[in-house]
Design brief:
The protein is an alpha+beta fold. Helix content is about 40%, strand content about 20%. It has a domain at about 45-140: Phosphatidylinositol 3-kinase Catalytic Subunit, Chain A, domain 1 (Ubiquitin-like (UB roll)), CATH 3.10.20.90.
C-alpha cells in the first residue's frame, strides 16, 4: 500500500512540475523554447539573456541553420558537443533517427568560420574571431 502512495505522490509532483514548466515557458524570455523544454535549455536561455552565453548559427550545406548556444569562452570542442546535443534533442522531439555516429561525422565533416577550418578543438571560438550570432559552416571534408 505504501508503494502505491509513493507512486501517486510522484505522479502528482510530476504533474505539478509540468504545469509550472508550462507557465515558465510562457515568459517572454523563454517563449521561443519548445513545449518539452529541458532544464539545460532554460539555463542556456537565461545565460544568453545575461550575456554569459552566445548563439553560434551552424549552417549546413542544405541551407538549414541550427542555433547552438555555448558559453562565451567556449572552445571548438564545446561547440561540437553543443551541436551534438542540439541535434539529439531535435531528433528525439521529431522521432527521427535516434543514433548518429559522431565519430564518423567529425571524420567526414568539419566546421569553418570565414573560410578557416576550426581544426584545433582546444582553441577558443573567440580566437577564431567568432562572436554572438556569427555563422559557422558545417562542410564535408574533401578527400585527399
Amino acid at each position: 500500500m505504501a508503494e502505491a502512495e509513493e507512486e501517486l505522490a510522484h505522479a502528482e509532483v510530476l504533474e505539478l512540475f509540468q504545469a509550472a514548466l508550462a507557465r515558465l515557458v510562457q515568459d517572454p524570455l523563454l517563449c521561443d523554447l519548445p513545449p518539452q523544454v529541458t532544464a539545460e535549455e532554460i539555463g542556456s536561455q537565461v545565460a544568453l539573456e545575461y550575456g554569459q552565453a552566445m548563439t553560434v548559427r551552424v549552417c549546413k550545406a542544405d541551407g538549414e541553420t541550427m542555433p547552438v548556444v555555448v558559453v562565451q569562452n567556449a572552445s571548438v570542442l564545446e561547440l561540437k558537443k553543443a551541436l551534438r546535443r542540439h541535434v539529439q534533442l531535435r531528433q528525439a522531439r521529431q522521432g527521427g533517427v535516434q543514433h548518429l555516429s559522431w565519430k564518423y561525422i567529425w571524420r567526414t565533416y568539419h566546421l569553418t568560420y570565414a573560410g578557416e577550418k576550426l581544426a584545433d578543438d582546444r582553441k577558443k571560438l573567440r580566437e577564431y574571431g567568432i562572436r554572438n550570432r556569427d555563422e559557422v559552416s558545417f562542410i564535408k571534408k574533401l578527400r585527399k
